[in-house]
Write a structure and sequence with these properties.
alpha+beta, 11 strands, about 35% helix, two-stranded antiparallel ribbon
Length: about 325
């Protein structure tokens, strides 16, 4: 596998950690709101955000969109590669990142090498995306694993605080399915917020040729419909000294009470930021942030002790890069 050159680790201050935590609760919070939450002026908060953005700690802000409300499904593919040269792997990575039918791409280390997500309207559309990849790069794929995420829960980044803070609330993705009709303006607005979650109403209005009041009303409607479920900040965790991992669970018991107990247990663990209910080779997943050099095996060990009859087996993979992130494509 090719290596990605990384910048030196950035040491977060206490105030920066607080700002990032509150952005994980609401990435669209105003400077005044953030200042009130962390005890700083809005000018000081603006300076902190500029510094974190310039240092590539913050890469973007984004609207968290429940694509199931748009009649889409969250299809995922894990790939294990073999007999591939560095330039061929780079070509594959670029292909996945540039493909309009692929919304999310991760570089992995562990049981798999690559992971991608396709937000497709049905299994036929997803199959077309997968066929595109296999027809171009099938000779380099030793193993592929396909699954569907039916429910995703986003947790705030309480691990950044000292002491760490357990989540008081979360964002739920996939709790209901619908096929909401969107106007052309709503689709354009949704895609802008997907990429620029902190863009002001004035900026969005200029980009979309709408009035600021119209933008405000349309955003409110999208939130009321449950299409936009919140706003978050995208952080380069490795840049600030953390290891980003995905833990995969095969379960013997997938009853609702057992799954709820597992969710509650994981929410109380420092560093857990996503919970995923899946259909496929694995039944449940969570994503975990630890200090660099620390793995999720201690949490897995304790999890197995707490749920000895429910957990059949586990797998861990390290997330080494994320060149494409929750990119929404609406025709």
């Amino acid at each position: 596998m090719s290596n990605t050159t990384r910048m030196p680790c950035y040491a977060l201050t206490q105030r920066e950690r607080q700002v990032l935590y509150h952005l994980s609760l609401c990435g669209r919070a105003s400077l005044t709101e953030l200042g009130r939450q962390v005890g700083l002026s809005k000018q000081a908060v603006s300076y902190i955000l500029h510094r974190l953005e310039s240092a590539k700690v913050i890469s973007s802000y984004y609207a968290v969109i429940d694509i199931y409300r748009l009649g889409m499904t969250h299809f995922r593919v894990f790939l294990k590669l073999h007999k591939i040269k560095s330039h061929e792997e780079e070509e594959l990575r670029r292909y996945l990142t540039d493909h309009p039918g692929i919304s999310w791409v991760l570089y992995l280390e562990g049981d798999y090498d690559l992971y991608f997500v396709s937000w497709s309207r049905d299994i036929i559309q997803f199959q077309s995306v997968l066929d595109d990849v296999i027809s171009r790069f099938g000779n380099f794929i030793q193993e592929k694993s396909f699954s569907v995420a039916t429910h995703i829960e986003y947790l705030p980044y309480g691990f950044l605080l000292d002491p760490p803070l357990a989540p008081s609330r979360s964002l739920h993705f996939g709790t209901a399915r619908a096929d909401c009709e969107l106007s052309a303006s709503d689709r354009r607005l949704l895609m802008r917020l997907n990429q620029e979650g902190r863009a002001s109403q004035k900026v969005l209005a200029a980009q979309l040729d709408l009035s600021p009041s119209t933008v405000r009303n349309r955003i409110q409607k999208l939130e009321d419909q449950g299409i936009i479920i919140g706003y978050n900040v995208r952080i380069d965790f490795a840049r600030v000294g953390y290891l980003y991992q995905k833990v995969l669970l095969k379960l013997n018991d997938t009853s609702a009470p057992t799954l709820e107990r597992i969710r509650d247990y994981l929410k109380a663990q420092t560093g857990v930021i996503y919970l995923l209910r899946t259909i496929g080779p694995y039944d449940f997943e969570f994503e975990l942030i630890t200090r660099s050099g620390e793995t999720g095996y201690d949490i897995i060990k304790e999890l197995r002790l707490h749920f000895p009859h429910a957990i059949h087996s586990t797998g861990v993979t390290i997330i080494k890069g994320e060149p494409k992130f929750e990119a929404l494509h609406l025709n």
